[in-house]
């Protein structure tokens, strides 16, 4: 029978299909409002992904103290899912807070892609993000390239880290004179407003 | 297959078997009854249909609902009972997919029953190939919607 291994640095939890399926069944019932006894493979896959995402969130976020206390004790899958779900909600709130703080002094320096992604894109994500049924979905394509690559992340975890990169970029850029940044960008390319490039890296190369 | 898996499957089938067999107490008044062997056959068909239609089913399943919905039909009698239920079950899963899950179980079942009794006069082939085919197309195109428990259907 298939088993899912969910691990962080300190511990590793193995949940069998037997433990996960009742949660998926419960989630499916909620998803269909008890009006359909069956769902397509795609939906079942999505809901299983949602369950695993929340459980993984708990494993990743759990602080060291709690991890030490529970080192040899595996949580029940249902408990782990519920706790993980709360953590995902908390992360969405943190992301929202960070987004609103960043917006107050956000400057796209004329680059359309930067503005569209950081302002409109993240806003769209926050509007459409589905914590219960599809937390693993990033929704947006994040066209603005940041300096870090997030390989194995998805959902709000990814967006949170992505937004954090933009926030740090903004902090850095705000320390420099606006004229200097604009001139550097124009020197880099006269149509820099239309390019899908990282503003910060261009400026860094010219400091 | 490991022993544990076989045991789990048996446990599941026993649960469904009992549930479906319970429906005999209701269908008997229409002269319809399923034996254990026939229920197991239907459950096997259910598995194949679900696999074929790439669907997963949780809870009590649709079989019992199909039995309750169609058992009072004049076109179903003991000799064709198992075959009819098996075909209807198969069609049900097919058209859940074809309607892109836009219909609830009860909506689809009530449409199937209504057409089966009237337009199709008990023909499962007509129900599948003509009525449901056209209906699913309308559902996908968004030109038809279910009007509620009074079984009224409207075309926009």
Helix count, DSSP H or I runs of 4 or more residues of chain B: 7
Percent range for β-strand residues of chain B = 5-15%
Number of strands of chain A: 3
List low-pLDDT spans of chain B. Answer: none
| Overall pLDDT metric of chain A | 89
| Greatest chain-chain contact | A-B, 16 and 22 residues
Largest sheet of chain A: 2 strands, antiparallel
Helical content band of chain B = 55-70%
Order of strands, widest sheet of chain A: 1-2
Oligomer kind: heterodimer
Could you give a short account of the major beta sheet of chain B?
2 strands, antiparallel
Q: How many helices of chain A in DSSP terms?
A: 8
- Helix share, percent of chain A: 55-70%
Order of helices and strands of chain B: HHHEHHHHEE
Give the overall form of chain A: elongated
Key structural traits:
A: mainly alpha, 8 helices, 60% helix, B: 156 residues, mainly alpha, two-stranded antiparallel sheet, 7 helices, globular
Account of the protein in words:
The complex is a heterodimer of chains A (207) and B (156). Chain A is mainly alpha-helical and 207 residues long. Chain A has eight helices and three strands, in the order E-E-H-E-H-H-H-H-H-H-H. Chain A has helices at 17-31, 41-61, 64-69, 77-104, 112-128, 155-174, 178-188, 199-205, and strands at 3-7, 12-16, 38-40. In chain A, helix 2 packs across helix 4, helix 4 (77-104) runs antiparallel to helix 5 and helix 4 runs parallel beside helix 6. Chain B is mostly helical and 156 residues long. Chain B has one domain (3-155). Chain B has seven helices and three strands. Chain B has a two-stranded antiparallel sheet. In chain B, helix 1 (3-22) packs across helix 3 (36-52) and helix 5 (81-98) packs parallel to helix 7. The longest helix of chain B has 20 residues, at 3-22. The model of chain B has no long low-confidence stretch (mean pLDDT 87). The A-B interface holds A 1, 18, 24-25, 28-29, 32, 35-41, 43-44 and B 2, 4-5, 8, 50, 54-62, 65, 93, 96-97, 101, 104-106.
């Amino acid at each position: 029978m298939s088993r899912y291994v969910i691990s962080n640095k300190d511990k590793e939890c193995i949940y069998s299909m037997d433990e996960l399926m009742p949660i998926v069944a419960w989630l499916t019932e909620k998803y269909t409002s008890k009006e359909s006894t069956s769902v397509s493979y795609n939906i079942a896959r999505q809901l299983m992904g949602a369950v695993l995402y929340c459980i993984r969130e708990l494993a990743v976020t759990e602080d060291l103290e709690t991890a030490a206390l529970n080192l040899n004790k595996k949580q029940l899958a249902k408990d782990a899912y519920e706790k993980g779900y709360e953590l995902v909600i908390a992360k969405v709130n943190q992301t929202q807070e960070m987004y609103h703080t960043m917006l107050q002094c956000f400057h796209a320096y004329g680059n359309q892609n930067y503005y569209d992604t950081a302002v409109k894109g993240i806003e769209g994500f926050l509007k459409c993000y589905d914590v219960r049924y599809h937390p693993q979905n990033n929704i947006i394509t994040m066209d603005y390239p940041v300096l870090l690559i997030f390989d194995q992340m998805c959902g709000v975890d990814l967006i949170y880290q992505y937004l954090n990169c933009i926030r740090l970029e903004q902090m850095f850029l705000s320390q420099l004179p606006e004229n200097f940044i604009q001139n550097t960008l124009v020197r880099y390319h006269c149509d820099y407003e239309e390019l899908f490039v990282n503003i910060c890296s261009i400026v860094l190369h010219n400091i | 297959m490991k022993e544990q898996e076989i045991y789990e499957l048996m446990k599941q089938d026993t649960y469904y078997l009992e549930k479906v067999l319970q429906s005999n107490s209701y269908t008997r008044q229409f002269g319809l009854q399923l034996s254990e062997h026939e229920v197991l056959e239907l459950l096997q068909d259910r598995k194949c249909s679900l696999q074929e239609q790439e669907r997963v089913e949780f809870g009590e399943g649709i079989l019992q609902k199909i039995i309750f919905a169609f058992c009072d039909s004049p076109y179903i009698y003991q000799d064709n009972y198992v075959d009819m239920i098996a075909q209807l079950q198969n069609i049900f899963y097919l058209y859940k997919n074809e309607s892109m899950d836009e219909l609830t179980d009860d909506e689809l079942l009530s449409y199937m029953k209504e057409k089966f009794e009237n337009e199709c006069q008990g023909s499962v082939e007509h129900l599948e190939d003509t009525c449901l085919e056209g209906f699913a197309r309308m559902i996908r195109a968004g030109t038809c919607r279910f009007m509620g428990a009074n079984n009224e259907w409207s075309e926009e």
